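Need the bound structure for 2-acetamido-2-deoxy-beta-D-glucopyranose, inputs here:
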Amino acid sequence: MFPSLLSLISLLTVVCALDLDTNSPASVNGDSKLIAKGLLDYYAGSRYGGTIGMFDQPYYWWHAGAAWNTMVEYWAVTGDETYLDTTRQALAYQRGDKFDLMVANYSTSEGNDDQGVWALTMMAAAERNFPGPGDDHSWLDVAKNAFATMVARWDLQCGGGVRWQIFSSNNGYDYKNSVSNGAVFNLAARLYYNTGEKVYLEWAQTAWQWLWNSGLIDHESYRVYDGLDANDCSNITPYLWSYNAGMLVSGTAYLFAATGERSWDSHARNFWTSSKDVFFDNKVMVEISCQQDTITCNNDQRTFKGIYANLLGLTAEVHPGIADEIIDYLTASAKAAANTCSGGSDGHTCSLDWISQQYDGKWIGLGEQISALAVIINSQALKVHAAPRGKAQDQVPSNQAGLQPSLAWFTTLTTAKPTPSPSKSSSPSPSSSAQPSSTHPTSSEVATSEPSSPAQYEGGSDGTTAGLGLLAILGLSVLLM
Ligand SMILES: *[C@@H]1O[C@H](CO)[C@@H](O)[C@H](O)[C@H]1NC(C)=O
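Answer from helper R.:
Posting the output first, comments after.
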């Protein structure tokens, strides 16, 4: 008995050590699956009395949005359907009564940033062609509806912007922050890239101009500060958070991909250069404003690296000029993160500090699982994500929900057609509330700042054609796994 127990222990030790090889799909898929399982250990919705889509206390509604975004990407990259139904049910259940991510249970404390994080999750589900909810309210519709409610809150205090909070009774209503406005900008850029509807380009330009002129972005260093006091418009809170940098680098990269304009190219490059200097140490991602000896990251901040990793993966997909370097950094970070995922009773609990390259047991939780999973998955952004990236569309009917993403992108490759130009006549907005409010510059004012060259879809011209053969082989190899 004693020897067999020993061998069992040594077997467990081998199983627990996540030695990630980012060049091996089997390694990536295997490690991701263990970390995803650890993530879902916090899921309340699978337990008696738990709410579908929500995680255990102290995690809030917005954490759930970040978690499901990563689970959508997990599905898209690995093709593993173990959590497909769980993820789909969670997304469908938390859409809100009006399918705009204003969810009655949480809306009294809901901020624009919370709604924005969830809207980006719906956007990701649409972009990945994640199996739909099986009714008339697709992930894309929900992203559009949420966007419409967010921009309806745009006001001209301090020249524009949305506030942190939605309701004036909540602390933070007098604060205009980068993540709320960054989410508006990022969503607008991605909605335009995916639908070609001009109103989203206009909003992306409007949000950009305000962010750029508000003082929230340093014009030299391209650092993105946390927010400003909406009472005096000048008192900037200077904290640097990775997810804010992520919103800006990916938003500008999408706009470059959608318009071909050089200014978006250089903004995207500058945000990447800035954020790689701030948020990486020897290529390992770090939430620098709180991961220091004297400061500790709170429950929110411990999730930011996951959102940042997701946004960097998307950036690499749409901006070939900086893709290789982003992947290089994500790969080093993915290995470091995986090295920390050997803790807890399950043996695959991850810790916050990746620089140490080992599990330290100091900070563990949902944010750590989200972040480690996201960085590993997104280290694969070019190999796996690139092929299916195209225009978001309504999802496959639910009776095809079992379709493997790998099959989907293999099919996309073999039937690749030139992408159509955006329709100039497409109707602008999903609902009346998408129209700029009375305090917002009118459409015609915004239109005067548009580039003279028509917007082009560039999504298919980012080098994927040259890589078709390689991608097809990759596709086959995943299919055969
Ligand atoms: C709202 O709260 C009630 C009561 O806890 C719960 O049954 C329901 O599932 C919740 N709805 C959502 C969308 O979270």
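Comments: The two ends are 37 Å apart (CA to CA). Residues 183 and 433 are 18 Å apart (CA to CA).
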